[in-house]
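ARCHIVE RECORD
Type: protein–small molecule complex
Small molecule: magnesium ion
Source of inputs: curated submission
Record status: active
Notes field left blank by submitter.
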Amino acid sequence: MAVLIAEHVSKKYGNTVALQDVSLELKQGEILGLLGTNGSGKTTFIKILATLLAKDSGKVEIYGYDLDKDRNEHKIRSLIGYVGQDTERSAYARLTVNENLRFFGRLRGLSKQEIDERIEKLCAYFDFASNLDKEFMRLSGGQKQMVVIMRALLHDPPIIYLDEPTKGLDPIVAKKIRSFLKEYVTEEQKTLLLTSHNLSEVDELADRVSLMYKGSNPLLGTSVDLKKELGIKEFIEIRKESLPASVDEKITGLKTVLSRVETDPEWVSFGVSAFFEGIEEIMRVLREEGIEVSFRHRSVTLEDVFINCVGVLDEKFDH
Ligand SMILES: Nc1ncnc2c1ncn2[C@@H]1O[C@H](COP(=O)(O)OP(=O)(O)OP(=O)(O)O)[C@@H](O)[C@H]1O
Ligand SMILES: [Mg+2]
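STRUCTURE (tokenized, with ligand):
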């Protein structure tokens, strides 16, 4: 069941086109990852879906409520939990975590008992009970982010928007937040829309991904399908320092080599549609040239899909 339907949403800031005809559906219980280069419109789109920003045209329906026609804004907002990109300013520095959560719970119109129950439940999910009496300003970046997420979940919203929830966090804390989120969303059957520039994070969490590009969203699907569509099965990688430019060029020109990318400063990646055929062809060139190289191989990642797609779109846009 679609719990959110966005159709042909467009938005300009003055002369800057931020969104152009974006359509998207969120299904109950799914996690959707919104990817895109800086300035591609992710935050603008999420803010519109969170009723924090007005769109110029298009239509958004959340649980059947039309954001334009239904005047029951309170009801619509109660269905949404939103965490923006600015963590520091999302809670009071000198209040404790507990005081912050209670204050925002009361703002939401929750009773004392409801607030108690929610804080207890969220602290269990986020393993946070031991920090409740600490002042917000004394928490680490990761702990602050958890408080801000808990704040957004206090009123138990069925739809959650998180704009770069693990930005600036170390990999261990980021992983912790991901696993808490996954558990919460799965067990409580919530629907989550998140943005991130960490593509392996999105791959790990999201059921579907949508790529935004210059205000539109040309790519939408499961990570597995998008990887399949890329047509590349594996990447055969050769250490750059062991590969003369002329040989690099020869390998790039092989029929079995579908792409050449450098996602790692020390390695050149050649995308092939079939591993054995690819490696045989590359070996043949290396034998002919009489050189030895260091090899490794890896599977296709969401980052490959992203880089390829943005590259193709950039080319289309430029011509
Ligand atoms: N308040 C604003 N006033 C004017 N232009 C804006 C404003 N907010 C965003 N924009 C412009 O709208 C476009 C989309 O910005 P947006 O913040 O939605 O992108 P984003 O995908 O969230 O980027 P990032 O990955 O950097 O967070 C950009 O061109 C940006 O410069
Ligand atoms: Mg943004």
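CURATOR ANNOTATION: The mean pLDDT is 93.
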